[in-house]
Amino acid sequence: RILVRDSPVAQSTGTFASLISDIATQVEDILGSEFKSRGFDQKLAPLYAQALVGMVALTGQWWLDARKPKKAEVAAHLVNLAWHGLDGLEQKPRLIGHRRQ
Q1: How does 58-71 read in b/e, with b if 16+ C-beta sit within 10 Å?
Q2: In the Cβ-directed half-sphere of 62, how many Cα atoms lie within 13 Å?
Q3: Nearby residues of 1 by Cβ (< 8 Å), 6 or more positions away
Q4: Residue 39: pLDDT above 80?
Q5: Looking at per-residue confidence, does 50 or 100 come out higher?
Q6: Is 40 helix (H, G, I), strand (E, B) or coil?
Q7: Which of 25, 26, 73, 93 would give a disulfide with 80, using CB separation of 3.0 to 4.6 Å?
């Protein structure tokens, strides 16, 4: 659970936005390396990093309020969308290696 979710806007560190920005920067570095090795335009890494991190962060915020479905199911659906896109979306995704509780 992210404890800084509702931190004051005037605070420059420890806020939800600054945490997400830090994570997106790290994801950008990873994607930039992968894009380079695959011959993709590295200039697009920030866009994809923001998209992936935003998708996960906002879904996480929503889930904190809704608490349904179970976390593992939410994670499976996020991976499904990120991995397959809308074109190859699976109807009932599951996490590989995840133990059912």
Answers
A1: ebbeebeeeeeeee
A2: 12
A3: 64
A4: yes
A5: 50
A6: coil
A7: 93
Helices 45-66 + 71-84 axis angle, to 10? 160
54 or 16, greater pLDDT: 54
What is the predicted pLDDT for the residue at 3? 46
Cα 73 from Cα 53, distance rounded (Å):
18
Cα torsion through 24, 97, 70, 74, rounded to 10: 40
In this structure, the number of other CB atoms found within 10 A of the CB of residue 39 comes to 7
33: amino acid identity, one letter? S
Residue linked to tokens 């590989």: 96
Dihedral (C-alpha) 13, 16, 21, 24: value to the nearest 10 degrees? 140
Collapsing DSSP to helix, strand or coil, 64 comes out as helix
Question: What is this structure's pTM?
Answer: 0.76
Is the separation of the CB atoms in 42 and 48 below 8 Å? Answer: no
